[in-house]
Design brief:
The chain is mainly alpha-helical. The protein is built from 8 helices and 4 strands; from the N terminus they run H-H-E-E-H-H-H-E-H-E-H-H. It has a two-stranded antiparallel ribbon with strand order 1-2. The protein has a two-stranded parallel ribbon with strand order 3-4. Helix 2 packs antiparallel against helix 4 and helix 2 runs antiparallel to helix 5. The protein is globular and about 45 Å long.
């Protein structure tokens, strides 16, 4: 049986949260539509391949969904993330120093010229607004994990999927790439336990200067 705090977090305010998501996302998509077209054109004009990148992620109650991002890498880029996986697993096991929760290689040769720009400014993630409209994600919530990440997380952090994953969250406004994986998980659970409409609004407001400054983005 879950503790009272965990039960309250599960109940939450889903209807008001959904209203907030749509009230912010739909007008935002309208305002950003010229930028979306510009980014899509830049990607298509400078590198071969599709404009969008689709990636399986773990969503609400561990259900899989497809997250959409602007493509920032070359097509058929070699995917060898074994070192990253081992580093994260070693950190979670307590046998290695904490790693960044948003590990990305600096000067990664697989990233395109346009990709470097949109990653540094987080513009590659704008398309996740469509995931919010579809109901796969919320504006605010824990970071949607990859399958192997979710499997590696300690059991006590599985509660992070009691809520929809988000585009932004407590860890993004608390240091982003400079926050370790374990600290990210702790912040995710703090959000799950404290979540409210007012907390979502505060996180959204705090996200604006983080995105403008590009804190921790690569």
């Amino acid at each position: 049986m879950r503790s009272p705090v965990q039960t309250r977090s599960q109940v939450g305010t889903p209807r008001s949260k959904r209203i907030l998501d749509l009230a912010v996302t739909l007008p935002l998509l309208g305002v950003l539509s010229p930028l979306l077209v510009l980014i899509a054109f830049a990607i298509k004009a400078t590198s071969r391949g599709p404009v969008l990148f689709h990636q399986p992620r773990v969503g609400l109650r561990d259900e899989p969904f497809t997250m959409v991002k602007f493509r920032s890498m070359i097509v058929n880029a070699p995917s060898d993330d074994r070192a990253h996986r081992e580093a994260i697993r070693a950190e979670l096991a307590g046998t290695r120093e904490p790693q960044s929760a948003s590990f990305k290689l600096a000067d990664d040769p697989r990233v395109t010229r346009v990709g470097r720009v949109i990653r540094a400014s987080s513009l590659d993630e704008i398309t996740q607004l469509f995931n919010v409209v579809r109901g796969d994600m919320s504006l605010v919530g824990p970071r949607p994990a990859l399958d192997w990440e979710a499997e590696a997380f300690p059991p006590e952090y599985r509660r992070r999927t009691d809520v929809l994953p988000g585009i932004t969250g407590l860890w993004q406004v608390s240091g982003r790439s400079h926050v370790s994986t374990m600290e990210m998980l702790r912040l995710d659970l703090e959000y799950v336990d404290r979540r409210s409409l007012w907390l979502d609004i505060k996180i959204l407001v705090r996200t604006i200067p983080v995105v403008i400054r590009g804190d921790g983005a690569r």
